[in-house]
Queue: 2 jobs
Job 1
Amino acid sequence: MPESKAPLNVTARRATAADVDDLIPLYCGFMEHEGDIPPPPAELRRRLERLLGCETDDVLIACSEDGTPLGYLQQRYFLSVWRADHDAFIEDVFVVEAARGRRVGERLLELAFALARERGVHRICLDTNENNHRGRALYERTGFKNLMPQWDNGREIFYSKYF
């Protein structure tokens, strides 16, 4: 288990078009962390601008006191015939390595929960790799439950949180 670090004083908020330059390296960082090659910055900018204008998604950004971007969260809202309530799906949670273990992800999730409640969401879901021990600890600490202990031969874990 990684050593415990002091929490950072972090501000998390909904990202706007003015945040695209700060989001590009964060999204690239997550793609590289996952072993993917990010698209060229101009293409990623185009995608982010489109995403930030989409009513079905929220992109949240966490910044330090001096404004340094530390992480992001992308959340999608949807309806399903399987449930009467609105749902949300957390697509991405990423925190830069230097800020991991310092409650940045927790701040992003707290804001995601608040925004979801404002939209009438009663369930938030996400999936993660079973080897993402740090992420899984964060999700469980913030109230997510693993309702499907084995999915895709145990490689992916599906979590839900109900309000």
Note: The chain has one domain: 10-162.
Job 2
Amino acid sequence: MTQKMIKDLVEDYYKIKIDTITRKREYVEARAIYFKLLRDNSRMSTSAIGKTMNKDHATVLHFNRKIKDWFLFDKQLKQDYDTLNDRVQHATELNPELFKDSLSLEGFYEIEYKKLKAKNKKEYNALVNKYNFLKSRLNNYEPKRILRGEFDLV
């Protein structure tokens, strides 16, 4: 949802379609602002952001590096970004349930951990079995380290 809303905001602000294939300056700057807004206001990876515009992650990384330099010299571009970022923040405050991908970092990792644990239960159990075997073998050679708990799982 965040991606669609940010794309609509940028397109409405600049009165252009940012997915148009062209290298004209206004399109390039609008796409750069779109990428930066998504990177700053969502938990999307650079690959996911790039896929929204049929680009790869390297394009997103390039624009995020370049736009910082552009902001130093083009005050209007920086002002445009600040205006659009304020609009995104305001929309997030008005309707937080629509922005579920903008979780806190802890919430994001908790959800991803649960997905990973459920998805890889067999692999997880196999790794735990290997761990327990190696720990028992180590117990034969270094029992004091085992007793101190140096190799306990968290």
Note: The helical segments are 2-14, 25-41, 46-51, 57-73, 75-94, 105-119, 121-141, 143-148.
